[in-house]
Request: fold
Amino acid sequence: MNHKRIHPVDLMTTKTADICILDVRTAAEVKAAGLPDCLHIPLHELTPARLQEEITKHGKNGSCVYLLCQGGKRAEMAADHLNGKINAELVVIEGGMNAVKQANIPLAANGKKVIPLERQVRIAAGLLVITGAVLGSWFNPAFYGLSAFVGAGLVFAGITDICPMGMLIAKAPWNR
Reply:
C-alpha cells in the first residue's frame, strides 16, 4: 500500500516535543544512531496495542505517527501492519535513517558500530550458500540443497518484500 510520506528535513522543521516518531529498526541499530525523543518498537514486536501504550507512556501526540527505519521498507511494512488498526495518520519518513544522515540532522548515538540488518542478511545468506557448496562438493551432493534453499528464500524475499531470514536475524541477541 502507498502511504503518505515526508522528507526528514520537512519533518524536522515542524518537529515539536510531543511529535510521535516511531523507529521500527532493531535495538542495536537504534543504539548505534537514532533521532532523539523517538519511540522505539522493532518491527517484529510492533502491535497496535504496544504502540498505543508507548504513545501514552511517553506523552506523545498520537494523532499522527511518523514511521522511521533504515531505508524505508520496514517503515512501509509497519504502516501496512498498522493501517486501519489505530486511530492515527501514518506517515513514512522518506529514505529512513539514510536520508536523515544525508540531511545532516543531529543524531543521538552511543558510538557503538553495528552492522545494519540488511548487511547481516547478505552475510548470512552468502555463508550458507558457500557452506552448501563446499559440503556438497566434499561430502555429499545433498548439501547442494542448502544453497538452493537459500537461493529460493532470496527470490521469495525479492518478490514479496518479506524476508524470513531478516526477521530471524532481527531477533538475534546482538540485535537487541
Q: What stands out?
A: The mean pLDDT is 84.
